[in-house]
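If you are new to this repository, start here. Below is one unmodified record pulled from the training split, so you can see the exact layout before writing a loader.
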Amino acid sequence: MRLVTFTELETAEPDASEPWRSAELWRTGLVHDDEVVDLTDPAVALPADMTELLVGGPGALERAAGAVRTKARRLALGELRLLAPVPRPPKVLALGMNYAAHVAELGREPPEDQVWFNKQRTCVIGPGSPIEIPAVSNMVDYEGELAFVIGRTARQVPAAEAHSFIAGFTVMNDVSVRDWQWRSPTWTTGKSFDTHGPLGPSLVTGDEIEDPGALRVRTWVNDELRQDGNTEDMIFDCAAMVELLSTACTLEPGDVVTTGTPPGVGASFDPPRWLVPGDVVRIEIEQVGVLENPVVGPRSGASGPPAPRPARG
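And here is the target side for that same chain:
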């Protein structure tokens, strides 16, 4: 099944690209053909917040799956504004240098250990919302990635059991401000600018995915194909990620884990090909979905300190 978080267009606020500010407008839904079944309708009575829905466990997901057999209201998919499927994830955890071909294009050796960083959850936006080029940098890059969402509390989970803790999969653009990223060994500031975590369009449950380790991942900037990879090139698979992360910290329902990017990022070109206002970034992952976002300039009045000097330590 494909779960979404949406608002109705006539009630969407102008700043709905920042969905953590308008939680009262959220609704959870089940995509069925060209319609969305409203899971908050009294006939189903599930939470409007996807994280709260996931906290309800298998029972809540069973009720969601059965919603098509109820009299819950249906809404035309094209008349809704889709937000990120998890608009306010408890954590966004991201794995770096996880595709062998991407590591090679950077001129590095494959890592022996998983290299994790976090993106602040306030960077998350949904499909169609604009990616903003900040006033402090013009070195903004795209990274098309498969992401998964944790479905139940996970602590010290062995890899063999990991997939039972994954609620489903979605598409993420790990937008990166490269000069800010390269000046810090943790990468966090350069990965966490507002609007730099496009996510969606839906949360696709595992029964819809034949093999998350064999999915084609493609990214276009405008009409130009920049990335064309496959998750089979990942150095560490999703199960290994859950095992390692849950050894270090408790994973919670709604946590987003994004799994690395294939080759073809803007920084790999000579000269680099950064995103500019007017671009449109489209990421397609087979069986999972298509995520598309326009690129715009800084918000009116935005200002900040001079861009930091790049340092590729």
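Two things worth knowing about this chain: The CA atoms of residues 50 and 86 lie 6 Å apart. The longest helix spans residues 238-248.
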